[in-house]
Every structure is written in structure tokens, then in C-alpha cells.
Amino acid sequence: MNYRSLFTKQQISIFLIWLFHVSGILGIIYSDAAWFVGATPLNLILSFGLLFINIKRDQKAFLLLFICFIIGMAAEILGVRYGLIFGEYSYGAVLGPKILEVPFLIGINWCILIFITGSISEFFTNSFWIKTLLGVGLMLTLDLVLEPVAPVLDFWTFKDGLASMHNYVGWALVAFPLQMLFHKWKIKIEGPFPFHLYILQFLFFTILLFKINSIGI
After folding, report:
1. Which helix (DSSP H) or strand (DSSP E) does residue 131 occupy?
2. Neighbour count for residue 175 (Cβ, 10 Å)
3. Residue pLDDT, tens place only, 87-120
4. How wide is the angle at C-alpha 146 spanned by C-alphas 136 and 44, nearest 5°?
5. Whole-number mean pLDDT of the chain?
6. pLDDT for the residue 209
7. Residue 87 CB neighbour total at 10 angstroms
8. How many CB atoms are closer than 10 A to CB 60?
9. DSSP codes, 46-93
10. Is the full-model pTM beyond 0.85?
11. Chain-centroid distance, C-alpha 148
12. Among 129, 113, 4, 130, which Cα is nearest to 48's?
């Protein structure tokens, strides 16, 4: 039997991210929450690895990944150390090793978010500016459900509690030029993988948010 005809790279990637995200949701809600929250770095690394193998890998794609990582980390370092761009906040221990108080994986997450939201926005319009703004909007939408959950999961905590408008304006300012580069350089990702990863992340944090607001984790 030719298994390659049954399971494509795209299908395996989508299956794996559904498996890990659904397992994470169920584990946090019904099982050992601390263990599953602690596995967040593994989930992020897996998501990035699967995204990477589905990207059309060329010089521009590699360069944009590098730029997203560097700019994302630099912006977060300015935020954590000086209260600039996003407000005053600090990272917990869950996301792993840090560079100047910012987890290495946060830079990876900026790469993931720019690439999946940029790819999704390509589906809806050919207008450069509209899809750039749509990509930023998709990132902010995800952040809206992520921010209330983050302190509970020990991802990060803002000095004044929940994130203020300062944070969302900062996200937009950092994301906008990166989205512009994504569309200017015509980065391509094969198939519907970005849609699945975005939907799963949105569902993951939305479900946890409802759980926290109802009976707590």
C-alpha cells in the first residue's frame, strides 16, 4: 500500500496540531493542569516546526522568519525591561529559557502569528493594504482572548493586572510592518494549515477563558 497517497504532509500536520491542542485543553480542564500547562513550550515548538515544513521555503521566507523573531524579541525586551510599547509586564517560568527576561519562545510565537494570520488574510482579498490590516486584526483578535488567560497560566502578568489599550496599540504597531513584509514578499504557505492552527489557538484560549470565568482551573 502506498501510504504517501493516503497521508500528505498537510494532513499529518493538521492531525498533529489538533491532537496536541485538544489534548492540552482536556488535560488542563480535567486532568493535571500544571503538567499540561508546563508542556506549552513543546506545543509551540511543534506548531512552529509544522508551520515551517508547510511554508514555501525560499530566501525571503527565511529572512522574514529571522526578522519576525528579532523584532518580536526586541519589542518584548523593551516592554519587559522598560515598560515601552506594550506596557509594564513580566514573564513567568512556563514558557522556558529567557533572553533578557523574555522567553526565547516568544520570538518563535511572533513568527507563527505573523505567518498564519498573513496567510489567512491572503485568502480573503487581493488588496495589499486590506490584507495587511486584516492580518493585524486577526492577531489582535487572538490576543483579546489570550490576555485574560495568560496570567492564570503563568505566561505573563501585567503590573496593573489585565492588559490595557496600550498593549493592543503596541501589538498593532509591531505587527503592521511585519504584515507588510509578508505580503510584499508574497510568502506562501501550502494548504489550509494556517487556518487550522489559528482556529485551534483561538478555541484553546477561548475555552480556557470560559472555564476560568465559570469555576476556575
Report:
1. helix 128-146
2. 28
3. 999 999 999 999 999 999 999 999 999 999 999 9
4. 85
5. 92
6. 85
7. 18
8. 16
9. HHHHHHHHHB--SHHHHHHHHHHHHHHHHHHHHHHHH--SS-SEEE-S
10. yes
11. 15
12. 113
- DSSP 3-state of 13: helix
> How confident is the model at residue 3, as a pLDDT?
47
pLDDT at site 4: 54
Give the dihedral sign, CA 134/52/173/196.
positive
CA distances from 101 to 3, 8, 65, 167 (A): 45, 39, 21, 18
Question: What is d(CA 118, CA 138) in angstroms, rounded to the nearest whole number?
Answer: 9
Write the burial class of residue 104 (CB in 10 Å: 0-12 exposed, 13-18 middle, 19+ buried).
middle
**Looking at the predicted structure, is the pLDDT value of residue 162 above 90?**
no
Mean pLDDT computed over 140-160 = 93
SS3 102: strand
Kindly give, in sequence order, each residue whose CB lies less than 8 Å from that of residue 54, ignoring residues fewer than 6 positions away. Answer: 9, 10, 13, 189, 190, 191, 193
Q: Is the pLDDT of residue 2 over 70?
A: no
